Amino acid sequence: MSFDPLYHPYPTYRLPVYANRGMVATSQPLAAGAGLDILKRGGNAIDAAIATAAALTVVEPCSNGIGGDAFALVWTEGKLHGLNGSGPSPAGISIDAVKALGHTEMPRYGAIPVTVPGAPAAWAELSRTFGRLPLSETLEPAIRYAEEGYPVSPTAAGNWNSAFRRYSTALTGTEFKPWFDLFAPNGRAPEAGEVWRSPDHANTLRLIGSSEAEEFYRGVLADTISECILRSGGFLTKEDLAGYRPEWVEPISVSYRGYDVWEIPPNGQGLIALIALNMLKGYPASSQESPEAYHRQIEAMKLAFADGSRYITDPSRMSCDPYAFLTEEYAEQRRRLIGSEALWPEAGEPRGSGTVYLATADGEGNMVSFIQSNYTGFGSGLVVPGTGISLQNRGLEFSLDDTHANRLEPGKRTYHTIIPGFLTKNSQAIGAFGVMGGYMQPQGHVQVAMNLIDYGLHPQAALDAPRWQWVKGKTVMVEPHFPMHMARRLERMGHEVQVAADFSSFGRGQIIWRDEKTGVLCGGSDARTDGFVAGW
């Protein structure tokens, strides 16, 4: 597909970026620069993805960290590979143990919701399997930012300050003091343009690089992490860390109007995006947006979320095969439920989160779609003293209802919100894409994929297009620049439409698209964040 780079129906100050030797797209310019630096040193797209991901733990710590999880879709040598870098719950945790501590649901902060961090192991596994440069070299740009400091970018500063205000009220125990010492050293969050540094973070990245993450899971860092969790009343042990390995998985896909849309299989929620697209492809293709098209998208997404909420968990403990949701027969069965008025399906109520997404490509044809997160902002609020490691709170997603599919169990990977996306056509790589932001992610994937494929928008326009977000029941939020005549028509169809005050809850995306004939790369980066496309 060829795009008209000057055609842009939505207000923006950005045009797509073109390059042919390499490209990095992510939510923070310095991180994109780190990835490009590694490409220019002779690294490939996989090395660039690792470098960018590591840099993001430094330059956007309010959205991800060394103590979080990661997923990747990697196109190399004519094949798409999936890496599940999410960690399990501790072997010693249980519903009864958590309830015995006085909790009726999983706590948001502290040591209890901390699961095994998978991101460092994912970096090492990607480097070993497909990288060209040593891991120690790919982490050098991130180490430099952490050690020397960098000026905080505007969106990161805003999110950092929001987290500081929340944590100032919520984190009252002494175990949270290291968080404030590290991330609010002057008694506040750093402002945009203010230089922030974390030498401990740099030292930790050096240890991860020189040991290919062994120190994090089976060395001195593992000892320090487990001691911190024990002091803070949690369950994660050194044995939990030592037993962890990321898992290579077969990506799942649906065919959509001549393209194949790919996602990571459960425990990620990418299945939800595919269920929705499988329903939507049964309607006639349209080159123009319409109230009816928006209505069908919203209804398909609600039905897909209902399925995901009920069934998605650790794949080894799911009650049904994920592929059963992607058959033509099932799509038609669910499609028949979509009428002319808004439905009220049963589904979970979405939560927000902090996540970073990146896409990389090189001149040899390699492409990576990569995402990592601490879950809600900085995560659990626990920082391991002397390491710069902020630990995730991914265990918050577990249910303490022992009849729920995603109930808390020992050594179990929870339902995961973060998902990378990928497009192929005729068994050739077309593009890496993603939209971060909690339960907005599958909704963003569907909207961005349709913008690219149905409406023929170039990557930047596809990202800038106004978004909607199903919230719960019949409630749909729309962005401030969403067409109001469309919103009014949706209300007449039974949707309860709310206009958001800003763009903060609608996700932040990146896209790299490879031209099928020339191989030229076209990149877009979301204007809802400090996003940047670095091309070479």
Automatic annotation (TrEMBL):
<dbReference type="InterPro" id="IPR043137">
    <property type="entry name" value="GGT_ssub_C"/>
</dbReference>
<dbReference type="GO" id="GO:0016740">
    <property type="term" value="F:transferase activity"/>
</dbReference>
<dbReference type="InterPro" id="IPR029055">
    <property type="entry name" value="Ntn_hydrolases_N"/>
</dbReference>
<keyword id="KW-0808">Transferase</keyword>
<protein>
    <submittedName>
        <fullName>Gamma-glutamyltransferase</fullName>
    </submittedName>
</protein>
<dbReference type="InterPro" id="IPR043138">
    <property type="entry name" value="GGT_lsub"/>
</dbReference>
<dbReference type="Pfam" id="PF01019">
    <property type="entry name" value="G_glu_transpept"/>
</dbReference>
<dbReference type="InterPro" id="IPR052896">
    <property type="entry name" value="GGT-like_enzyme"/>
</dbReference>
